[in-house]
Amino acid sequence: MTEPRWPVIEVFGPTVQGEGAEAGLPCYFIRFGGCDYRCKWCDSMYAVEPAEVRANAQSLGVADLISLLTGLEGNPEWIVLSGGNPALLELGTLVHNLQVAEFKVAVETQGSRWRPWLAGVDRLTVSPKPPSSGMATAGHALALSRFLTAANDAGVEPALKIVVADAEDLEWAKGILTTYRAAEKHLSVCTPQPGEGHWESTAALEHQPPESILRLEVADRYRWLCEQVAADPDLAGVRVLPQLHVIAWGSARGV
Amino acid sequence: MTEPRWPVIEVFGPTVQGEGAEAGLPCYFIRFGGCDYRCKWCDSMYAVEPAEVRANAQSLGVADLISLLTGLEGNPEWIVLSGGNPALLELGTLVHNLQVAEFKVAVETQGSRWRPWLAGVDRLTVSPKPPSSGMATAGHALALSRFLTAANDAGVEPALKIVVADAEDLEWAKGILTTYRAAEKHLSVCTPQPGEGHWESTAALEHQPPESILRLEVADRYRWLCEQVAADPDLAGVRVLPQLHVIAWGSARGV
């Protein structure tokens, strides 16, 4: 039997996880290519579009990946398997080897396709995509329900994390968060394209570096989302975060 | 026996906790007056300086506080008892009543004085003060050690959270975080006074609103701290966060 290999877009770190349950914790990232969604605001389309995946991905196995990780600085507890949608792949062997090497393994997926290997990771985060993504279809809603049932049948209670760009997204997210049980519930501010918003703090910033404008737009959106969530009795136990890597590094890739 | 009353500076919320283990979660705050420390960068000196505490504090009991909380919007799970140093007071009765009302109670203290009632809260965070505070004396180090021993004897493993303003603080924090066990370990970027730093993103921002400058200064400092922590094998499991309320609201008070 040949050793499995997967399409890997990038291996990087040490950095700090910017989102979800491990937000703020040092980690390495492995980003896999391929996705069944096309979210309008996707920040890693280079790991999604088939032409880009074909152009950018290397086909790597466990030994290749361990060797790449060994060459990185630092010694984080966590390793994040990201995408694209890593749940399109069969990563059980990799997860096992990373855990043998004493990593804690975190996976984030939109919850479109259940895989038994997901039950073996140290933290599973499901991030259903709201209306602003263009992916909030009835079919995807059914797939999410089936995914969460399968997870529960496998003894796993995932964390839920939903990106929110606007009031419609928030209302939608509230429906999800009040319908499903979850180990943790997170709302994450959608990071705009630089210059996309016309938010209070950035009105006079046309001549500033785009990274400064982006960080302030995220900060303004974060304030808005905090105010909405804090005042809403139905969202009492929901954690609200900005994308911390955007606060730190703007839209730079590979950090 | 008369009902106990305490010096209360402000009761506010709903807002989102900006720091520590509850970062990003909706909460109410009760801020008590009085502190045994005088940190150089204290952001709530109005709850510290005796003259200001005398001028600003109301003497309130359990019924007063419950009544004020009932008048607030929202329905957060968490209530944060803050200061000043709330561990200077005897708050056991209040904690009990808040828990009966189904709040989870979080307390943050610098770890200078143990109180048995601290064993009864839902999350205790100890925030030892680093050299930049002017409070990192040998006496305070001994007090911290005694505090943590008393906590452990009471069956409590607090979270540790240390504010970091510079490289010296980080080295000091590393000593604390590698010496003591803790339920969670956090590093939090010290928020500068607006205009205090001369950080990359703010060099050209003299004519921008001070809140924008402050948020970008915090973002630059956060990047620096993330880079330091991610690359340091001794800080593998330490969570790094900016003060999220500063990202959201700048230095506004009462949010």
Based on helices, strands and strand pairing, what is the structural class of chain A? alpha/beta
- Count of alpha and pi helical runs of chain A: 7
Summarize the helix and strand pattern of chain A as letters: EEHEHEHEEHEHEHEH
What is the CATH superfamily of chain A?
A: Aldolase class I
How many strands of chain A?
9
What is the CATH domain class of chain A? Alpha Beta
The overall pLDDT of chain A, averaged over residues, is: 93
What share of the residues of chain A lie within helices?
25-40%
Report the β-strand fraction of chain A as a percent range.
15-25%
The structural domain count of chain A equals 1
**CATH architectural category of chain A:** Alpha-Beta Barrel
Q: What is the oligomeric state here?
A: homodimer
What do we call the CATH topology of chain A? TIM Barrel
Biggest interface: A-B, 45 and 45 residues
- Major β-sheet of chain A, in short? 9 strands, mixed
Shape of chain A from CA axes?
A: globular
List the uncertain runs of chain A.
none
- How far is it from the N-terminal to the C-terminal residue of chain A, by CA? 36 Å
Radius of gyration of chain A, CA atoms, in whole angstroms: 18 Å
Q: What spatial order of strands do you see in the largest sheet of chain A?
A: 3-1-2-4-5-6-7-8-9
